[in-house]
Design brief:
The protein contains 6 helices and 8 strands. By secondary structure, the protein is of the alpha+beta class.
Amino acid sequence: MPLLDHFHAPLVDSYPWQSFHTIWAVAIAGRLNATLPRRYVATVQTHLGRRVEADVAEFELPLAPEDEPRNGTGGGVAVQTWAPPAVTSVLPAVFPDDIQVKVIDQMDSMRLVAVIELISPGNKDRPEARRAFGAKCAAYLQRGVGLVAVDTVTSRRFNLHNDFVRVTGLPEQFAMPDDVWLYATAYRPARRHDINEIDFWAVPLAVGGALPLLPLALKGTRAVPFDLEATYTGAREAARL
């Protein structure tokens, strides 16, 4: 099915993009679970908004009686709750949106082997958000985790691959043209001849166009085909779009 504009009228008014992207992530996980070897399982994770998941207030609550530290095994003397010293400074923080599918190796201590990111408007709306997303991608790749990023956000005209290039200090020759702001990218970390490398595939997208077949690299083994068009078609059918 051709790619729709999920971020402008008329579609965004009748079907919020957050709902569709969640359905799309579920469709991606379902297709992967139907095609990957059984040792791997794909799971969906979504977290929208700039708040850290653990509220500061949670850390200020008193311990429950059963959690109070004690001396010995039965009814010892209670130890006074420890409080950290005054902070040196309070740092500003940006936590990127997560709409992602993670592939886990169940036979290797639930190790993360691949991630698919569906980019949100919040990932692109400010320079610090774009840098945070680039840093998150770099962290996955430094761990050898394969990565696919899909950017269909028509309301923010930025290229997050280029922020990844700048965050990691790569030369600008590895950036995509700045006027390419709808795209799908795939990354495969590799070590060859004692040199760290990242294989990179980039496909520009367009509203009304088809979606590509990309390699999804699984850490420690081969890449598998990831049919983005099939998952998008499944999501549109599930959403009745």
